[in-house]
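In this supplementary section we document a worked example of the pipeline. Step one takes a protein sequence of length 92 as its only input; no multiple sequence alignment statistics are reported here. Step two produces a three-dimensional model, which step three serialises into structure tokens for compact storage. The input and output of this example are shown verbatim.
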Amino acid sequence: MDEPSAASCQGRRTPTDTHSLDHFHLPPTQIRRAGFSAPTPIQAAAWPVALSGRDLVAIAKTGSGKTCGFLLPGMLHIQVRWRRSSANQPRQ
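The serialised model returned by step three reads:
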């Protein structure tokens, strides 16, 4: 039996957990093709925090989705930065 998940976020205006992939403006086709129908509990707690630019420490069991919980916000951040820098480049 799985242990109940617990998450806490401290500070002002802390983001709340979300249990829908649609909330994150992710590429739905690619996410669903990879087998995701909803974020795992650790992802539901971590993604809003990481995507808001806050520091994050997450502790969970192996197989709980921690890696994707950290990588997906990081990849989205890189994508946004790349698009911004590309938009500022002169066209040839």
